[in-house]
Amino acid sequence: MATRNQTYQFRKRRDALKSVRAPLSSSASGSGGPVIEMVSASLLGSNRNRSAYAPLSTEDPGPSSRDAFTVGLPPAWVDYSDEIAANIQQARIKMSELVKAHARSLMPSFGDGNEEQHTIEALTREITELLRRSEKRLQKFPANGSSEDSNVRKNVQRSLATDLQNLSMDLRRKQSTYLKSLRQQNEGNDGADLEMNLNGSRSQLEDDEFGDLGFNEQQLSRLRNSEQFTVEREREIKQVVQSFNELAQIMKDLSVLVIDQGTIVDRIDYNIQNVATAVEEGFKQLQKAEKTQKEGGMVRCATILVIMCFVMLVLLVLKEILL
Amino acid sequence: MVLVSAARDYINRMLQDISGMKVLILDSYTISIVSVVYSQSELLQKEVFLVELVESISMSRESMSHLKAVCFLRPISENIQHLRRQLASPRFGEYHLFFSNILKDTQIHILADSDEQEIVQQLQEFYADFVAVDPYHFTLNIQSNHTYMLPAVVDPSNWQHLCDRVVDGIAAVFLALKRRPIIRYQSKSDIAKRVAHETAKLMYQQESGLFDFRRTEVSPLLLVIDRRDDPVTPLLNQWTYQAMVHELIGIQDNKVDLRNMGKFSKDQQEVVLSSEQDSFFKSNMYENFGDIGMNIKHLVDEFQQISKSNQNIQTIEDMAKFVDNYPEYRQMHGNVSKHVTLVTEMSKIVEERKLMLVSQTEQELACNGGEVTAFEAVKNLLDNENLSEIDRLRLVMLYALRYEKEKPVNLMNLCNKLASQSAKYKPGLVQFLLKQAGVDKRSGDLFGNRDLLNIARNMARGLKGVENVYTQHQPFLFQTMENIVKGRLKDTEYPYVGNHFQQGRPQDVVIFIVGGTTYEESRSVALQNASNSGTRFILGGSVVLNSKRFLKDLEEAQRITRSSPSVI
């Protein structure tokens, strides 16, 4: 697709005009005081720095239009949105670690695998905590501010909500796959245990002649081990399910904020129309409210009451004086 | 895909290199251009957190200098004035200006003069100056479309304005495709000739550097034709999904406004019908009404099954699956309600206006059938109380277009009958139509009754019988496309501009209809493209017509002609 860049022509003309304008303004700015103007000599660089500097001068810079252009500080809620975005980023990093931990714990290992479980638990907890904190912060966005600022704020909220929802769905999907593979492994293990038990019983039958105590002990210890194993696995599953539910709650809350794709609400022209009508409606409501307040029955009542109070007071005083 | 992806690429490029929070400033034309190809959620992903119209940005005094402004506007004088005011007292930190067409030098100078604070970071021309409603169909949404029916002398400035807008739109399409075409136009139409010549001047002389693209073996073809060469297609009632919705309810920029049709729930008052976003619509937009009914029934059955299984939640796994699939479930719900609502509304309208009856006669008038039976049928229908005025008018017009020479007496009878029945009928409208688009003014063989070959073909078709009597009409455009593919487009009817000449068959063809396209024609084009004939067609028009709009343009043109002294 073809495009044409007219920036060069534009800048040429702008700079040509500036050299005509600059001597004019400096002659008009009156006496005394060096006025340090930010005249851009180069075509690039200084444009970026423009917003950072304000003209330094000991005198009024005169008719220069620089005062109209102040350094713009973004409103306070931008800090919140930055914080939430940072949280989301962190959550993403932790999720990739979690995936690795899942994979490691599913591999057959000689050890107990307890550290893996701890890491998985810890990571899942952290991620859920991050998501929950972000979601709470998202709900707590301030509702004041001008109408345009509130539009920007609402849109930022929407976009963050979409990101959060996607992240939580992703986490749940990963957890469910892990859970499934856990369950499969568990059954496998139980099967293996069963086999062991069978073998044990067979060997017991075989070795019965050799004496009961020893083999019973061996069997018992094996039983105890597998019991421990199952109890632990159950605990893990319970924890995963719990974080599942938490995430489901988060998703429900977020789904209110997220836009449905493909519907009329996702159309740019529909949103602009709505803003226009909403602003108009708001204005009308404000006018109405002002009017009702002015003629307000309440105000009238209150004034009458106050006047009556004064009258009564005066009467009281008079009574005291006259009597 | 071509037009939609070209427009999307332009918008992506505008937004990609600018970091931080942005505000997108559009005007009333570019908002249509952007809305049909880009969604709000995609804008949010690109960190565009506010969208405003250029006319209203100066109304607020609030300064938001932490936002960077990306302006995408048409290069017209009103926008330049708005921008000038904005640059004098800017609200945003940076301004990146993109224009949808070629800027004049004076406009660049005006902008440079007003940029005292040097907040404009770039000024570029991104040629997305068309509304890409479908992958191979674009429109320009021109308000004063009726001007094309008037001779240039009546309203020269509006006429020139229309021509300029059309030329700009066509130029933008070719710049977006990076091709420079050979141009042909319809010989009998003045406005088509003017548009063709001006486009050629722009592409080959004025901005020849800009259009100097790598030449391919076979140049693409631009064919500029006039709506009045086929006035039948916009007058007919439609029975394929997209065309039918536009005809009975009305589609604007892929949105359907149902608010006048009765009480609907809040999320069904306005709906979106876009083949890019709705896969059910994509596979059904060219199907006829009967098949759509069946397909929707299948869709509803599917949906009911899923919702039943959703209610049957017993284990935690089921719960988890439900929560996982909830977004898709919700989207499916919305989609199913939308289509069911549309089809229900349309069925209601068909029933009220007795459109099955009317359309049968319309199709016979348009395609085959003898004069006697046609006259009887139209007369009977005019007597029918239930018909709405617009349907009566359409029937008489179709009769007039077909049999104007054969039985003028009958035609006069029908016109008188029409005038006596409805008070709103503007007398002389049918005659005005014949003056504009009558047999003398048309170049092609619209009804297939001029040369023997066509007559024979028609008779054969009549004997064979048609699959569906309601969709037997094929727009004249279909024949034109066939002729182009076979290289049989006559030079006398469609001459070349200048000394161009087409070697062999073109592979890319853009057909522009001055006066407007219809969805029936865009369906024809899509089906032709799907048939892999080696040639790819793109259709464009000044508006997208339905019978209401076509008649409105006709009435407006008649009114102006009557009140203008310079017409004989």
TrEMBL record, chain A:
Transmembrane segment boundaries: 297-318
Pfam families recorded: SNARE
Statement: the UniProt record of this protein carries the keyword Membrane: yes
CDD domains on file: SNARE_syntaxin16
Keyword Lipid biosynthesis annotated: no
UniProt keyword list: Coiled coil, Membrane, Protein transport, Transmembrane, Transmembrane helix, Transport
SUPFAM superfamilies linked to this entry: t-snare proteins
Gene3D superfamilies per the UniProt record, alphabetical: 1.20.58.70
Coiled-coil blocks: 113-140
Domain of life: Eukaryota
Location of the T-SNARE coiled-coil homology domain: 227-289
Cross-referenced InterPro entries: SNARE, Syntaxin, Syntaxin_N, T_SNARE_dom
PANTHER family in alphabetical order: SYNTAXIN, SYNTAXIN-42
Family statement: Belongs to the syntaxin family.
The name this protein goes by in its record: Tlg2p-like protein a isoform X1
Automatic annotation (TrEMBL), chain B:
Any Pfam family matching the protein: Sec1
Alphabetical list of SUPFAM superfamilies matching this protein: Sec1/munc18-like (SM) proteins
Top-level taxon of the source organism: Eukaryota
Transmembrane annotation, as ranges: none
Family: Belongs to the STXBP/unc-18/SEC1 family.
Protein name: Vacuolar protein sorting-associated protein 45 homolog isoform X2
Source organism per UniProt: Ziziphus jujuba (Chinese jujube)
Gene: LOC107421618
